[in-house]
């Protein structure tokens, strides 16, 4: 049975383009995988703490030396990684905020990029441990940035996911959503056409 993990990060519940795209992707994926399972984590409704000393302590200290807060941080990281390990397909809903990903999505990455668990250091350098997974990143952007110097989302997410071994990553960009005229409708139509190709 195939499993899809959906990570939503838009702070908007209504009228969120990235959520519209992820909803359409999941619906198409369910049609293609009728026995599949979907795990959903909404980082806007349930934001994760940012990387802090408790999480680092939970990762680095022996269990007998951990405080209650460090144990709780470790358990939270373990749960998030278990969800990721269980998934064959990862879908990230990632609106662009101030040229980058939402800070809540960065916090999720900080919890799951974990030495010895999702990657390890070798004599040849770091090696990702999550090979064989596919990822789709569905973005929503007010302007047009894909392929340009101001696009800090796609290069960063490719690097972060590749670092843990997820190299098969496809992006669907809904762009020009705040540029006036027909740009929003055209940007969303192009994104939906791309979505239909890959989902």
Automatic annotation (TrEMBL):
It is an enzyme of class 1 (oxidoreductase). FMN binds at residues 10, 16-18, 96-99. Its EC number is 1.6.5.-, 1.7.1.17. It catalyses: N,N-dimethyl-1,4-phenylenediamine + anthranilate + 2 NAD(+) = 2-(4-dimethylaminophenyl)diazenylbenzoate + 2 NADH + 2 H(+); 2 a quinone + NADH + H(+) = 2 a 1,4-benzosemiquinone + NAD(+). InterPro entries: Flavodoxin_fold, Flavoprotein-like_sf, FMN-dep_NADH:Q_OxRdtase_AzoR1, NADH:quinone_OxRdtase_FMN_depd. Keywords: Flavoprotein, FMN, NAD, Oxidoreductase. GO terms for molecular function: electron transfer activity; FMN binding; oxidoreductase activity, acting on NAD(P)H as acceptor; oxidoreductase activity, acting on NAD(P)H, quinone or similar compound as acceptor. It comes from the Bacteria. Homodimer. This is FMN dependent NADH:quinone oxidoreductase. It comes from Geopseudomonas guangdongensis.
């Amino acid at each position: 049975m195939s499993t899809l993990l959906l990570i939503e990060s838009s702070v908007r519940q209504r009228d969120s383009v990235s959520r519209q795209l992820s909803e359409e992707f999941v619906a198409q994926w369910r049609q293609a995988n009728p026995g599949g399972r979907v795990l959903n984590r909404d980082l806007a409704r349930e934001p994760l703490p940012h990387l802090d000393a408790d999480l680092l302590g939970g990762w680095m200290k022996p269990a007998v030396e951990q405080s209650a807060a460090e144990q709780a941080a470790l358990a939270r990281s373990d749960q998030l990684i278990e969800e990721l390990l269980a998934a064959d397909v990862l879908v990230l809903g990632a609106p662009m905020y101030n040229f980058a990903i939402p800070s809540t999505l960065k916090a999720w990455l900080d919890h799951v990029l974990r030495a010895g668990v999702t990657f390890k250091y070798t004599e040849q350098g770091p090696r990702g441990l999550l090979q064989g997974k596919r990822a789709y990143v569905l973005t929503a952007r007010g302007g047009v940035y894909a392929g340009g110097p101001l696009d800090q989302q796609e290069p960063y997410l490719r690097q972060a996911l590749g670092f843990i071994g997820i190299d098969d990553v496809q992006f669907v960009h809904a762009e020009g959503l705040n540029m006036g005229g027909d740009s929003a409708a055209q940007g969303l139509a192009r994104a939906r056409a791309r979505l239909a190709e890959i989902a």
